[in-house]
Amino acid sequence: MTDKNNDVVNHVEGDLHTAVQVGNVGRDLIVHSAMHNGGPPPPDPKAGRLTVLAVDDEAHALAEIVHLLRQDSRVGKVDSASDAVTAARYITQVLRQKERLDAVFLDIEMPGLNGLDLAWLITRFAEPPGLVFVTAWEKHAIEAFELEAVDYLVKPVRKERLGDTVRKLLDRASPHDGEPPGDPLIPVERDGVEAFLRLSEVRMAELDGDRARLTTASGEFSVRVPAAVLTADWATSGFVRIDEWRWVAVEHVENVRLTGRDMTVQAAGRSLAVGAEYRREARRLLVHSRRRPEHL
After folding, report:
1. Other CB atoms within 10 A of residue 292 CB
2. Closest CA to 141 of 178, 188, 174, 94
3. pLDDT at residue 35 tops 60
4. CA atoms 190, 162, 108, 120: torsion sign
5. Higher pLDDT residue, 20 or 125?
6. Stretch 226-231: mean pLDDT, rounded?
7. What is the mean pLDDT of the chain?
8. Phi and psi torsions of 216, nearest 5°
9. What structural domains and CATH numbers belong to the chain?
10. pTM greater than 0.70
11. Contacts of residue 198, Cβ cutoff 8 Å, sequence gap at least 6
12. Cis status of the peptide bond prior to 41, with omega within 30 of 0
């Protein structure tokens, strides 16, 4: 309404969820928010969706990945940075303030601080966001695996392929009770050709220097991976070490046999002896998986 001088004394702006009351009292402007009686505003429809950062020094590539991410209804917020230094500052500020950041979509070939350098810095945080590399090159897949990347996308990125990555990130952010937080891809080689395997496909890993031979139902593959990774990381993914060189997937163990103090497992079509120093842990894991050993 207005006074006799047509000055605004009191009026409402906005709808029921955003309304504010504006008052003019003695030339002072007073604003009262949330004047409606409907309680607090409704929850943000983007709450619970992924919050991500995209990093790429090429403007067109950055715009493309941001566009694809914003098209996915499971992604709530997408910020971007055109260089790794700016991204590092952003990530540091967000994580130190305990704000949400689920993933960083990261180019590798960038001037100055490259994507691998930035990824290494990100992994130093106590609760780092998921790493997704987006690059025109396949040659960095091994390094990405060693940094425990959630996924490795090769440009140009297809919408369907990105959708699979978003699903993995959601699994990582909210793993199902009693289930592992995802089934990571492993970059491998076979006859000089690079490929990708799901970790769940691997039945046995045999270490040979700085590489491992992975046995699957479809054949054998090679991957560069240190023993420390196999011991520390694969154990939490259902693998058990049976000797100095071999790890077997518990779910693919077909049979367990105990003869006196000796122990053998049937896995990947082979009968394998379990080393003395690994028997206790092997028995614990195999019993936990409800496999009953045969005693001879």
Report:
1. 9
2. 188
3. no
4. negative
5. 125
6. 70
7. 77
8. -130, 180
9. 1-42 (no CATH), 50-173 (3.40.50.2300), 185-295 (2.40.50.1020)
10. no
11. 183, 184, 185, 186
12. no
